[in-house]
Amino acid sequence: MGQRVANASRHVTRRRVGRPGVRSRWALPTGFLLLALFSTGCAQAGATVQGEKVHGLYVVIAIMAAPIFIGVEGLLLWSVFRFRKRQRDGGLGPQTFGTTRALVIFFAIPSVIVATLFALGEQTLATVQKQDPSPVVIIRAEGFQWEWTFYYLNEGFVVSGKTLHVPALMVIPVDEPVKIQLHSRDVIHSFFVPAFLFKRDVIPGRTNTFTFTANKIGTFPAQCAEFCGLWHSKMTFIVKVVNSTDYTAWTEQQIKAVQSISCPPHGPALSIVAKDISWNTNCLAVRAGSPISISVTNRDAGIDHNFAIYDSFSQTKKFFQTGRFPGVSTRTDQLPPLPSGRYYFQCDVHGPSMSGVFIVGGK
Amino acid sequence: MAVTEARPAALAPRPAARLISWLTTTDHKKIGILYLVNSFIFFVIGGVFALLMRTELARPGTQIFHPNAYNQLFTLHGTLMIFLVIFPMLAGFGNYFVPLQIGALDMAFPRINALSFWLLPVGGLTILSGFLAQGGAAAAGWTSYVPLSVQGKAGQDLWTVGLLIVGTSSILGGINFIVTILRLRAPGMTMMRLPIFVWSILAQSLLVVLATPVLTAGLIMLFADRRLGTSFFDPTHGGNVLLWQHTFWFFAHPEVYILILAAWGAVSEILPVFSGKPLFGYPGVVLSFLMITALSFTVWAHHMFATGAVELPFFSITTEMISIPTGVLFFNWLATLWKGKIRLEPPMLFALGFIAMFLIGGIDGVWMASPAVDFAITDTYWVVAHIHYVLFGGTVFGIMAAMYYWFPKITGRMLSKRLGQWHFWLQFAGFNLTFFPMHVLGLRGMPRRIADYAPGRGWSFLNLVATAGAFLIAVSIAIFFDNVFVTLRKPRTASADPWGANTLEWATSSPPPPHNFDALPPIRSARPVFDARQAGLSLEGQP
Amino acid sequence: MSVAETTVDERAIRGTSGPILGMVLFVASEAMFFAAFFGAYFTIRAANHVWPPRGIPIPKLGLPAVATAMLVSSSFVLQAGVRAIRRGDAKSLERWLGITILLGAGFLVLQLRDYAHTGFSIHDGIYPSLFYVMTSLHMAHVFGGVLFLSLVFAQSRTGQLSMVRHEPVEAGAIYWHFVDAVWIGLFTVFYLLVQ
User: What mean pLDDT, rounded, does chain B reach?
Assistant: First the structure.
């Protein structure tokens, strides 16, 4: 009985054997086209030399995946329509258990695809991973909950944002290799610029470095991509790619901006408030020689801050440092006498993002 | 009807006695039902969490949830769905059907079986009780990366302890399955005649037994770092942050296969039945299961490509190699359908939906297996799309196929075909509306696990679509529950073998008697019930 | 009913018994558990040039060496018990079991004494973290083994074990040898592979 059923269905298939062939002749190219459109339409093309390579690999995988996707879904739909049980049919299909030859083919096809994919992937990976030996700009990017700080190591200045309010801005020159060194002050973060088609984790106790060359001028939103706690969603930053003239102008302006910070001296009792992981001022000033007290108020519940005075953000010399203390609370300390000059203060927990100029003026 | 009259006392015991019989049962069928009921309860809780998240994300800006609440929601959504819904659901089907399919009276260790089950709600409630703790429930994601998870409040401890309990439950369950399958098979049931679902449970149990203890070790280190002052993960005291990720993913990648193997098994069981054909390439399917089981221990660090601290080519090639046995499964499924006599009953609809959707989940994993592309799309919504195409489009569709397929065996009642079709098409539409746009969101750079996003990034409309889809899924699930509850009030009319199926569970009454079988048909192939039907043998001793 | 060629009650028991297979699988699972800790140990050790790190005194061999000798010899003693019950000699089994339990308990006492002499606390960095967590988890396993063997001892005293039925002894021995093997690993990494 089973034999007769098998014969019957073989007969039916032979009669219509031309149709799937015809259909697949136009279905496949259309599918390629649709998927290629999809991948270029939705995937960003990459704003760096490396990113363009990644995009290329993405499209190649899309083109390899297209026939698999269309083939399997097509066969599935075809089987359902073509082999759907009709009322007059017998109960069973042909009792075919599969042959070893079929299995060998089944294993061989994906093996070939995998080998090709791996080879192509490794080529692109080599480009992305290659570190440029002579980067023009070197930036130490520091992540903490929930802000970024960028140290321009060659130029000698620092930029950061105002946590939860103003994203940090990283400006880089177009067509020049840039090196990024990643550091974390607390938990794991991830440095992610979607337009560069790249991210790298920022890991406590480990320095990750990579280089890239931006090749499109523009402003690119970016943000932390590794979940890092309460305000993870607000840990954004902006990458601005500019031409070399604009870049030089910007760096000079950054250096000047710090130099021009100034404020009149306050009385013998200074006070400063930390809220939303920012100080309420970027400038404190006192007269030299008089005893000074400083009261530090921490309004961030459950978050540690402290107050410290150094010669500069590179912290070669430390003049004063309080212990870390959690909010909400206030502590008051006596400052040691300091010679006249411009100093740098910061919260050591959060670094230059919470910093300012400490001016000791003449008598 | 006749049955009801014959055993009136057995069917209407006092409620208290009935409750106690469920609490103290060691019958694998009752424990299987407990697993399923427990899983569906957590499924509703985890699903509500998902709806709340989608509601918040429907528009840019913060509407209803402070990030603190949102972070707890997505952490517990992932944790519950993985550890208390999908795995126990599959284990529930395994509990009910492995002994039946191999012609056994019960599991090898019935009391340990009861213990494995009862540890589950205890662990689940421990995790959920975080909502009552100061600072709320765990909020470090289901992956609980250190040092963030070391910072967490008491809810994180409850999460850790809860998972230790759930892990212990699954290890005991896994041992039980393996011993049952290797030792309690009926005469004639050789390994290569095992129903394919039993093979999938065997492979899954091997993974559970060998991978879960590694999570247990990691959880103990996490707990010790949080509460005992150790420094396993603290780099300032000689520890290593990435140690957690290695430990976690060494467990959690096999876990992904733990979460889908039995669904593959169920689908491989259902497709032949509703195609009127044997499973094409049975040895190939078995070989694929075993290859995947072995390979899954070599791929964990592909979750860590972006850390810049792992051997990229090695983990890339092992990951891509997984697509070889997976591809074989697809070929075999398609060849099973080919020239069949396909009956589009609800179990078959869901099984076909499973193939269609799991294919997408598999293909979009290929991009991530290539490290260069992974750098761009990891930790974005692409990953969220991928995991849901595998675990929802794959496993949940597979679970639903199994529900419609085995419901008559478990309850003696057929679920409504019409409602089943509504359920399928709405779930199919809702699922794709929710998760397909997430691929695009990922390509447009939307990171996962963000409580909020800014307008003007090309994310807003797609998020709105995803939210609409999520509610459509909710409607489809409501139809399913309606179908179940309405059907449960109907009389038991299902025959022993309503689908014309192949395996031994259909050789006994629906539902089976406490001792499972009055008699077994001869077992001379992987399809003893099919053979008996073809030979014209009666299976139930009734007309 | 005509289909019944065999009934479920007639099946024969083949190969290794279920409880023994269950214990083998449990031990495999436990092996992965300790392997994770050994993996952690070697990951961290590979990143440290000085081991134990500065400030951590090098552990003394005395007590732990005695403890090791006790635990290793207890495995042989227990195996003598297994051979005895395979012959059906419950009296000898009880004697060997008793010695095994005493050696296991003695190991635990010596280990706890050793904790008092390490010269570092669990808060003192990564080496103490590894040392205390790994050895105390092992001690918990030895304690569990002592309890299990005590139950087997009680079973034997009440005449429940025989030449035919002595699976608890075999299963207990598998577990005990495993715990012993883990200790040899721990002893090697914490007491021998220093400097």
Answer: 93
How do strand A341-347 and strand A351-361 relate by DSSP bridges? antiparallel
Instruction: Pick left, alpha or beta for residue B445 (phi over 0 → left; psi -120 to 50 → alpha; otherwise beta).
Output: left
* Residue B52 neighbours by CB distance under 10 Å: 18
Residue tagged 């779930």 (tokens): B427
Chain B positions in Cβ-Cβ contact with residue A226 (cut-off 8 Å): 145, 379
Token pair for residue A228? 């890092």
pLDDT attached to residue A36: 58
- ipTM, two decimals: 0.93
Q: Tell which of B237, B273, B292, B450 to mutate to test the A interface (max A CBs under 10 Å).
A: B450
Check whether C119 has a pLDDT greater than 90: no
Partner-chain contact B147 A118, CB within 8 Å: no
pLDDT of B5 higher than 70: no
Give backbone dihedrals phi and psi of A282, rounded to 5 degrees, phi first: -110, 15
Across the interface, whether the CB atoms of C6 and B187 are under 8 A apart is answered yes
Residue contacts between B and C (CB atoms, under 8 Å)? 141
- CA distance to A81, B105, B179, B186, C3, per residue, from C12 (Å): 48, 14, 15, 9, 20
Of B187, B216, B240, the CB nearest to C47: B240
Put simply, whether B1 touches C (Cβ < 8 Å) is no
- Which site among B172, B222, B232 would you substitute to test the C interface, given the most C Cβ atoms closer than 10 Å to its Cβ? B232
Inter-residue contact C129 to B224 (CB < 8 Å): yes
Give the mutation candidate from C13, C133, C137 for the B interface (greatest B CB count, under 10 A). Answer: C133
Whether residue C185 is predicted with pLDDT greater than 70 in this model: the reply is yes
**Three-state SS at B463:** helix
> Is B71 touching A (CB cutoff 8 A)?
yes
- B-contacting residues of A 184-213, CB under 8 Å? 186-188, 190, 192, 194-195, 197-201, 203-206, 208, 210
Question: B6-20 burial string, b = 16+ CB within 10 Å, else e?
Answer: eeeeeeeeeeeeeee
**Per-residue tokens: B496:** 């022993």
Mean pLDDT (chain A, rounded): 86
Residue type at A161?
G
Closest-CA distance of chain B to residue A261, Å = 32
Q: Which helix (H) or strand (E) holds B415?
A: none
Distance from CA of C14 to the nearest CA of B (A): 7
B342:A103 CB<8 A: no
Those residues with Cβ within 8 angstroms of residue B446's Cβ, 6 or more apart along the chain or in another chain:
B380, B381, B453, B457, B459
CB contact under 8 A, A65 and B366: yes
List the single residue in C with minimal CA-CA distance to B103: C8
Residue B191 pLDDT > 80: yes
Q: What's the Cα-to-Cα distance from B223 to each of B76, B125, B144, B149, C147, rounded to whole Å?
A: 18, 18, 12, 10, 26
Average pLDDT over residues B300-306: 92
Q: What is the per-residue pLDDT for A89?
A: 64
In one letter, which amino acid is B259? Answer: L
Joined tokens for residue B323:
């697509």
Question: Residue C10's pLDDT is what?
Answer: 37
| Backbone CA torsion sign across A85, A89, A92, A95 | negative
**Segment B244-254, tens digit of pLDDT:** 999 999 999 99
Residue pair A58/A39 in contact by the 8 Å Cβ criterion = yes
Neighbours of chain B (3+ CB pairs under 8 A): A, C
pLDDT score of A18 more than 80: no
Q: Burial of B497 by CB count in 10 Å (0-12 exposed, 13-18 middle, 19+ buried)?
A: buried
3-state secondary structure of B352: helix
B536 touches chain A (CB under 8 A): no
